[in-house]
Q: What sequence folds into this?
């Protein structure tokens, strides 16, 4: 492939091409041609994570399956989000009309895959002590609304609600944000405690 061709990096978790700025091989007007090295690095992380996940899933590791899945799933989510941030800044409709439309959907698919991988590890651990499923489910119920709200904020779905206002409306907005922040901290603390306790008890049971 010649120097004028776009650079494409793929991974088993979900593919997002990492082209030069200007997907046709030509720089967009007023821009310089450059390769998205940072995004390519995140693609490499996802590729390696996919390989390790495959090895864990086929039983190549004698122990620690739950922890391996949790770590690998978290890595997928982290690399997907960081890659999305870099892609959002570089793959714009002006410089790359086609690929810019794929940035957010690809990130969402990868995040779902990451949580699914971590979920497999969680199921394997909780299967050791089924009575902890109730505690785990309650923890998920408490933390899920906060994670959904954070996702909506990151994706810009709440811009109209968070936009500054005037007069009494601005006072209410600030008060609402304060109350929402406190509630989010409480939910995360309580939910996180329940999740950690559930897994800790499963570990203690397996070691007994």
A:
């Amino acid at each position: 492939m010649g120097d004028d061709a776009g650079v494409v990096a793929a991974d088993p978790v979900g593919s997002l091409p990492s082209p030069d700025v200007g997907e046709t091989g030509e720089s967009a007007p007023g821009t310089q041609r450059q390769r998205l090295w940072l995004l390519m690095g995140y693609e490499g992380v996802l590729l390696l994570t996919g390989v390790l996940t495959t090895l864990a899933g086929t039983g190549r590791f004698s122990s620690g399956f739950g922890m391996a899945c949790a770590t690998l799933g978290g890595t997928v989510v982290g690399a997907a989000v960081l890659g999305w941030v870099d892609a959002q800044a570089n793959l714009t409709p002006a410089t790359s009309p086609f690929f810019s439309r794929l940035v957010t959907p690809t990130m969402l698919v990868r995040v779902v895959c990451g949580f699914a991988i971590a979920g497999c590890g969680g199921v394997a651990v909780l299967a050791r002590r089924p009575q902890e499923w109730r505690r785990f489910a309650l923890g998920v119920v408490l933390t899920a609304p906060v994670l959904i709200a954070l996702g909506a904020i990151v994706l810009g779905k709440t811009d109209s609600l968070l936009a500054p206002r005037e007069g009494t409306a601005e006072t209410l907005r600030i008060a609402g944000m304060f109350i929402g922040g406190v509630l989010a901290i409480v939910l995360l603390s309580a939910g996180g405690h329940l999740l950690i306790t559930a897994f800790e008890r499963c570990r203690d049971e397996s070691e007994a």
Summary: The helical segments are 37-57, 65-90, 97-100, 103-126, 133-154, 159-162, 168-207.
